[in-house]
Amino acid sequence: MAIDPEIKPKRTAAFYQQLLQGSLGLPLTSDTSVEVPCQYPDAILVSIDFENGDKIEQCMKSGNMEKKLKIQAGVSILDTRDLSSSSSPPQETLKTYNIVLGHSSYKKHSERKFLFGKTEWLCGPAHLLNSIEKLVDRTRNIILVGHGLIKDHRVLKALGFDFKTSISGILDTQQMAYAILGKPEDRGSLRLKGVLEKLDCTFEGYHSAGNDANFTLRALLLLAVEDYSGHEESLDDGMKKRLENIKALGRSQLPIPVADVCDTELN
Q1: Which of 31, 56, 60, 183 is deepest in the core (most CB within 10 A)?
Q2: For the domain that residue 164 is a member of, what is the CATH number?
Q3: Are 201 and 222 in contact (CB under 8 A)?
Q4: 131 contacts 169 by C-beta, under 8 angstroms
Q5: The pTM is what?
Q6: How does pLDDT run across 30-61, given as a tens digit for each residue?
Q7: For residue 236, what are the contacts with CB-CB under 8 A and spacing of at least 6?
Q8: Structural domain tally of the chain?
Q9: 23 found inside a domain
Q10: Which helix (H) or strand (E) holds 212?
Protein backbone atom coordinates (compact mmCIF):
# COMPACT_ATOMS: atom_id res chain seq x y z
CA MET A 1 0.00 0.00 0.00
CA ALA A 2 2.99 2.33 -0.24
CA ILE A 3 2.31 5.29 -2.48
CA ASP A 4 5.90 5.94 -3.41
CA PRO A 5 9.09 4.05 -2.52
CA GLU A 6 10.93 7.36 -2.21
CA ILE A 7 8.71 8.29 0.73
CA LYS A 8 8.17 4.96 2.43
CA PRO A 9 9.29 1.40 1.78
CA LYS A 10 6.57 -1.07 0.94
CA ARG A 11 4.24 -1.59 3.88
CA THR A 12 1.45 -4.01 4.69
CA ALA A 13 -2.24 -3.19 5.04
CA ALA A 14 -1.88 -3.75 8.80
CA PHE A 15 0.76 -1.01 8.98
CA TYR A 16 -1.55 1.57 7.41
CA GLN A 17 -4.51 0.36 9.45
CA GLN A 18 -2.52 0.97 12.64
CA LEU A 19 -1.27 4.31 11.34
CA LEU A 20 -4.86 5.38 10.68
CA GLN A 21 -6.18 4.20 14.04
CA GLY A 22 -3.19 5.45 16.00
CA SER A 23 -3.23 8.90 14.43
CA LEU A 24 -6.91 9.28 15.38
CA GLY A 25 -6.21 8.20 18.96
CA LEU A 26 -8.10 4.92 18.63
CA PRO A 27 -7.04 1.51 20.00
CA LEU A 28 -5.38 -0.79 17.50
CA THR A 29 -7.44 -3.68 16.16
CA SER A 30 -4.88 -5.31 13.86
CA ASP A 31 -1.67 -7.25 14.44
CA THR A 32 0.24 -5.14 16.94
CA SER A 33 3.47 -6.94 16.11
CA VAL A 34 3.69 -4.85 12.94
CA GLU A 35 6.31 -2.13 13.34
CA VAL A 36 4.70 1.31 13.08
CA PRO A 37 6.02 4.82 13.73
CA CYS A 38 5.95 5.86 17.38
CA GLN A 39 5.36 9.51 16.39
CA TYR A 40 1.80 9.20 15.11
CA PRO A 41 -0.16 10.00 18.30
CA ASP A 42 -1.22 13.62 18.81
CA ALA A 43 -0.94 14.24 15.08
CA ILE A 44 -2.37 16.69 12.62
CA LEU A 45 -3.78 15.26 9.41
CA VAL A 46 -2.97 17.35 6.34
CA SER A 47 -4.84 16.58 3.13
CA ILE A 48 -3.44 18.13 -0.06
CA ASP A 49 -4.97 18.12 -3.53
CA PHE A 50 -4.03 19.82 -6.81
CA GLU A 51 -6.03 20.64 -9.91
CA ASN A 52 -3.91 20.73 -13.10
CA GLY A 53 -0.90 19.73 -11.05
CA ASP A 54 0.93 18.53 -14.15
CA LYS A 55 1.12 22.17 -15.24
CA ILE A 56 2.98 22.98 -12.03
CA GLU A 57 5.47 20.18 -12.70
CA GLN A 58 6.08 21.50 -16.22
CA CYS A 59 6.50 25.03 -14.93
CA MET A 60 9.02 24.04 -12.26
CA LYS A 61 11.03 21.92 -14.70
CA SER A 62 11.18 24.69 -17.29
CA GLY A 63 11.98 27.36 -14.72
CA ASN A 64 9.35 29.63 -16.27
CA MET A 65 7.86 30.98 -13.05
CA GLU A 66 5.94 33.75 -14.80
CA LYS A 67 3.90 31.42 -16.98
CA LYS A 68 0.18 32.08 -16.65
CA LEU A 69 -1.56 28.97 -15.42
CA LYS A 70 -4.98 27.84 -14.26
CA ILE A 71 -4.15 25.89 -11.12
CA GLN A 72 -5.70 25.13 -7.76
CA ALA A 73 -4.13 23.78 -4.58
CA GLY A 74 -6.37 22.59 -1.77
CA VAL A 75 -5.31 21.98 1.83
CA SER A 76 -7.53 20.62 4.60
CA ILE A 77 -6.23 20.15 8.14
CA LEU A 78 -7.56 18.23 11.12
CA ASP A 79 -5.92 18.60 14.52
CA THR A 80 -6.67 15.28 16.20
CA ARG A 81 -6.74 17.03 19.58
CA ASP A 82 -10.11 18.43 18.48
CA LEU A 83 -11.64 14.94 18.25
CA SER A 84 -12.11 14.83 22.01
CA SER A 85 -14.97 17.31 21.72
CA SER A 86 -17.98 17.50 19.43
CA SER A 87 -18.80 21.11 20.30
CA SER A 88 -16.67 22.86 17.65
CA PRO A 89 -18.31 23.64 14.28
CA PRO A 90 -17.08 21.37 11.46
CA GLN A 91 -15.58 24.34 9.59
CA GLU A 92 -13.35 25.05 12.60
CA THR A 93 -12.36 21.41 13.06
CA LEU A 94 -11.68 20.70 9.38
CA LYS A 95 -9.83 23.86 8.41
CA THR A 96 -9.83 24.03 4.62
CA TYR A 97 -8.08 26.35 2.17
CA ASN A 98 -8.24 26.87 -1.58
CA ILE A 99 -5.33 28.53 -3.41
CA VAL A 100 -5.80 29.61 -7.02
CA LEU A 101 -3.42 30.69 -9.76
CA GLY A 102 -4.94 32.19 -12.88
CA HIS A 103 -6.66 35.22 -14.31
CA SER A 104 -9.41 37.04 -12.42
CA SER A 105 -12.31 35.28 -14.14
CA TYR A 106 -10.83 31.88 -13.22
CA LYS A 107 -10.42 33.07 -9.62
CA LYS A 108 -14.05 34.19 -9.49
CA HIS A 109 -15.19 30.89 -10.97
CA SER A 110 -13.13 28.97 -8.39
CA GLU A 111 -14.42 31.08 -5.50
CA ARG A 112 -18.01 30.26 -6.38
CA LYS A 113 -17.28 26.53 -6.28
CA PHE A 114 -15.32 26.46 -3.01
CA LEU A 115 -17.53 25.45 -0.08
CA PHE A 116 -15.36 26.05 2.95
CA GLY A 117 -14.20 29.66 3.07
CA LYS A 118 -12.33 32.26 1.11
CA THR A 119 -10.04 31.52 -1.82
CA GLU A 120 -6.47 32.83 -1.84
CA TRP A 121 -5.31 34.12 -5.21
CA LEU A 122 -1.67 34.02 -6.32
CA CYS A 123 -0.46 35.83 -9.41
CA GLY A 124 2.12 33.12 -10.20
CA PRO A 125 3.53 29.76 -9.04
CA ALA A 126 6.63 31.17 -7.32
CA HIS A 127 4.81 31.63 -3.99
CA LEU A 128 2.70 28.47 -4.08
CA LEU A 129 4.99 26.38 -1.88
CA ASN A 130 5.16 29.12 0.75
CA SER A 131 1.36 29.44 0.74
CA ILE A 132 1.07 25.72 1.46
CA GLU A 133 3.91 25.57 3.99
CA LYS A 134 2.55 28.42 6.10
CA LEU A 135 -0.55 26.29 6.77
CA VAL A 136 1.45 23.30 8.05
CA ASP A 137 2.57 23.31 11.69
CA ARG A 138 5.98 21.65 11.59
CA THR A 139 6.14 21.56 15.40
CA ARG A 140 3.54 18.76 15.37
CA ASN A 141 3.55 15.20 14.06
CA ILE A 142 2.12 15.37 10.54
CA ILE A 143 0.25 12.68 8.63
CA LEU A 144 -0.08 13.57 4.94
CA VAL A 145 -3.35 12.45 3.38
CA GLY A 146 -4.49 12.22 -0.22
CA HIS A 147 -6.70 10.25 -2.58
CA GLY A 148 -4.59 8.62 -5.27
CA LEU A 149 -1.70 10.55 -3.80
CA ILE A 150 1.02 9.64 -6.30
CA LYS A 151 0.27 12.56 -8.64
CA ASP A 152 -0.05 15.07 -5.82
CA HIS A 153 3.21 13.81 -4.33
CA ARG A 154 4.96 14.45 -7.64
CA VAL A 155 3.68 18.03 -7.63
CA LEU A 156 4.81 18.60 -4.05
CA LYS A 157 8.20 17.15 -4.90
CA ALA A 158 8.51 19.46 -7.91
CA LEU A 159 7.68 22.43 -5.68
CA GLY A 160 10.39 21.42 -3.21
CA PHE A 161 8.07 20.39 -0.36
CA ASP A 162 9.92 19.09 2.72
CA PHE A 163 8.86 15.47 3.19
CA LYS A 164 11.17 14.86 6.15
CA THR A 165 10.61 17.45 8.86
CA SER A 166 7.82 16.24 11.19
CA ILE A 167 6.23 13.98 8.55
CA SER A 168 5.34 10.86 10.55
CA GLY A 169 3.34 9.03 7.90
CA ILE A 170 1.32 9.10 4.70
CA LEU A 171 -2.20 7.76 4.15
CA ASP A 172 -3.84 7.30 0.77
CA THR A 173 -7.63 7.02 1.10
CA GLN A 174 -7.85 5.22 -2.23
CA GLN A 175 -5.58 2.49 -0.91
CA MET A 176 -7.34 2.48 2.47
CA ALA A 177 -10.71 2.06 0.75
CA TYR A 178 -9.28 -0.85 -1.24
CA ALA A 179 -8.27 -2.55 2.02
CA ILE A 180 -11.30 -1.71 4.18
CA LEU A 181 -14.39 -1.71 1.96
CA GLY A 182 -14.31 -5.36 0.96
CA LYS A 183 -14.45 -7.19 -2.34
CA PRO A 184 -14.64 -5.24 -5.63
CA GLU A 185 -18.29 -6.14 -6.13
CA ASP A 186 -19.06 -4.74 -2.67
CA ARG A 187 -16.88 -1.64 -2.52
CA GLY A 188 -17.68 -0.19 -5.96
CA SER A 189 -15.60 2.57 -7.52
CA LEU A 190 -12.41 3.68 -5.79
CA ARG A 191 -12.70 7.20 -7.17
CA LEU A 192 -13.27 9.74 -4.39
CA LYS A 193 -16.93 10.19 -5.35
CA GLY A 194 -17.51 6.43 -5.27
CA VAL A 195 -15.82 6.02 -1.89
CA LEU A 196 -17.88 8.88 -0.40
CA GLU A 197 -21.09 7.33 -1.73
CA LYS A 198 -20.16 3.96 -0.23
CA LEU A 199 -19.53 5.66 3.13
CA ASP A 200 -22.83 7.60 3.02
CA CYS A 201 -20.98 10.89 3.06
CA THR A 202 -22.84 13.90 1.69
CA PHE A 203 -20.91 15.70 -1.02
CA GLU A 204 -21.60 18.35 -3.61
CA GLY A 205 -20.70 18.37 -7.28
CA TYR A 206 -18.64 21.56 -6.95
CA HIS A 207 -15.24 20.32 -8.04
CA SER A 208 -12.30 22.25 -6.62
CA ALA A 209 -9.00 21.40 -4.98
CA GLY A 210 -10.08 22.75 -1.59
CA ASN A 211 -13.34 20.81 -1.66
CA ASP A 212 -11.55 17.60 -2.66
CA ALA A 213 -9.00 18.01 0.13
CA ASN A 214 -11.83 18.39 2.65
CA PHE A 215 -13.81 15.44 1.29
CA THR A 216 -10.66 13.31 1.34
CA LEU A 217 -10.31 13.92 5.09
CA ARG A 218 -13.99 13.11 5.56
CA ALA A 219 -13.46 9.86 3.66
CA LEU A 220 -10.48 9.03 5.88
CA LEU A 221 -12.51 9.58 9.05
CA LEU A 222 -15.38 7.42 7.83
CA LEU A 223 -13.01 4.70 6.65
CA ALA A 224 -11.67 4.57 10.21
CA VAL A 225 -15.24 4.20 11.50
CA GLU A 226 -15.94 1.49 8.92
CA ASP A 227 -12.76 -0.31 9.96
CA TYR A 228 -14.16 -0.55 13.51
CA SER A 229 -17.36 -2.22 12.36
CA GLY A 230 -17.78 -5.26 14.60
CA HIS A 231 -15.22 -4.02 17.14
CA GLU A 232 -17.32 -1.32 18.84
CA GLU A 233 -18.15 -3.42 21.90
CA SER A 234 -14.45 -3.78 22.70
CA LEU A 235 -14.17 -0.01 23.23
CA ASP A 236 -14.62 1.75 26.55
CA ASP A 237 -17.11 4.61 26.83
CA GLY A 238 -14.46 7.25 26.12
CA MET A 239 -13.34 5.57 22.90
CA LYS A 240 -16.93 4.97 21.81
CA LYS A 241 -17.58 8.68 22.21
CA ARG A 242 -14.44 9.50 20.24
CA LEU A 243 -15.53 7.19 17.44
CA GLU A 244 -18.96 8.86 17.44
CA ASN A 245 -17.28 12.28 17.16
CA ILE A 246 -15.18 11.04 14.23
CA LYS A 247 -18.27 9.71 12.45
CA ALA A 248 -20.25 12.90 13.10
CA LEU A 249 -17.44 15.04 11.73
CA GLY A 250 -17.13 12.90 8.61
CA ARG A 251 -20.85 13.26 7.92
CA SER A 252 -21.29 16.83 9.15
CA GLN A 253 -23.48 19.21 7.19
CA LEU A 254 -21.84 21.14 4.37
CA PRO A 255 -21.88 24.93 4.10
CA ILE A 256 -24.17 26.50 1.51
CA PRO A 257 -22.19 26.94 -1.72
CA VAL A 258 -21.42 30.54 -2.65
CA ALA A 259 -22.95 29.88 -6.07
CA ASP A 260 -26.26 28.92 -4.44
CA VAL A 261 -26.17 31.95 -2.13
CA CYS A 262 -25.62 34.24 -5.10
CA ASP A 263 -28.42 32.59 -7.06
CA THR A 264 -30.78 32.93 -4.07
CA GLU A 265 -29.96 36.61 -3.68
CA LEU A 266 -30.69 37.20 -7.35
CA ASN A 267 -34.12 35.53 -7.22
Answers
A1: 56
A2: 3.30.420
A3: yes
A4: no
A5: 0.87
A6: 655 555 555 567 899 999 999 988 888 888 77
A7: none
A8: 1
A9: yes
A10: helix 209-227
